[in-house]
Amino acid sequence: MSEASSLFTRLEYRLAQQLFHTRWLPRSPRTQRLTMHLFQRCANAGHPAALSQYGHMLFHRGVSPQDKSRGARYVLEAAHAGDAKAQYQAGQIHEHGCAQYPSRHEHAVTWYARAGEAGHPLAASRLARAYCDGELGLPVDVEKARHWQVLADRLAGLAGSLTSDLQDTGSLDRADGETRH
Prior knowledge:
By secondary structure, the protein is mostly helical. Helix content is 71%, strand content 0%. The protein contains 9 helices and no strands.
């Protein structure tokens, strides 16, 4: 990609982000189409954040199976490019499966680990629960569960909150859901 087209793609992405997050702008169908079109152009140009965001939107809100499949493909492409949010989403795609990507727990563990190491607290928390409860084909391993929970707490700014529960009871507090992204 040339430097000029890269600059143009970054500008288009910023505009799409601003349109997407602006509260004062009326949410007309025309504005929504323009925003989605800009995200699509940026994703097709290979912009990692656009691949992640547009892919996430298509995967979770796409109407047709083709949209969902293309969304999953964009998310995985962004994950391979190093986007931590996309790596977490790739873990979820492989954990739960979809039409194009059947459930493969070993891939889910790999993506969750990459996302956790890249700074995504929900990915680290998911691995902590998996090691604690023996999910995702992992053996129960309290030490690894503690390692991932400490990382998750540190990333979320909660150092020590759940790790003391782990030391006292040997299990993780499940008050944190996976509702945040």
